[in-house]
Design brief:
Length: about 190
């Protein structure tokens, strides 16, 4: 876990209890039939699908093994993560996991991203993991200025500095994808 926390810059964020509470309200509000679980195993079960929540800082390698295990043990897998919990490596790993599980084993997965808006308000957006990956990759270039808006020397600096810290760029994009999207659901605790 310390490696993942270190890789994410040691920041704190949403705790798992908070993520679980928000997604529970989301499932109620969207009328998804899931039941909270206690003890070992998934955090929620619904129609044979395992729902697993994680906090901002978690051991991705351990969680990844858990995700794959749950995908085979249950009909499907829904992963619930805070907006700032992913880095480029984990997003690529989830994308490839999703593709292998679907294309080779007909196992479906979804990703729910939870974004904190204020002390008691959140946004939740549901994604097919493949679509999440493709949207992230497509949106990163959107934030860069066009050639007619900047000098070449400024463009070089912008490209090098922003893409050298791809994880920070990614977190900014994911946050906007959840907070600013029309299909996000607002949750109040």
């Amino acid at each position: 876990m310390s490696e993942d926390i270190e890789r994410r810059g040691g920041e704190t964020g949403l705790e798992e209890k908070e993520v679980r509470e928000v997604i529970g309200k989301y499932f109620e509000q969207t009328r998804k039939k899931v039941v909270p679980q206690k003890g070992a195993g998934p955090d929620f079960l619904g129609e044979g699908v395992a729902v697993e929540t994680k906090p901002t800082n978690f051991d991705f390698e351990r969680a990844f093994r858990q995700y794959v295990n749950y995908a085979f043990k249950y009909v499907g897998l829904w992963i619930v993560l805070p907006e700032d919990s992913l880095d480029i490596r984990s997003i690529l790993t989830l994308y490839l996991m999703d593709r292998v599980l679907w294309e080779k084993h007909l196992k479906s997965t979804k990703l729910y991203i939870v974004a904190k808006r204020t002390e008691k308000e959140y946004s939740v957006r549901e994604f097919a993991i493949k679509d999440f990956f493709l949207e992230v990759i497509a949106k990163i270039p959107d934030g860069f200025r066009y050639y007619h808006q900047t000098k070449p020397s400024e463009a070089i600096q912008e490209i090098v500095s922003r893409l050298s810290d791809l994880d920070m760029e990614l977190k900014s994009v994911v946050s906007k994808m959840v907070k600013d999207h029309y299909s996000s659901v607002k949750i109040s605790l």
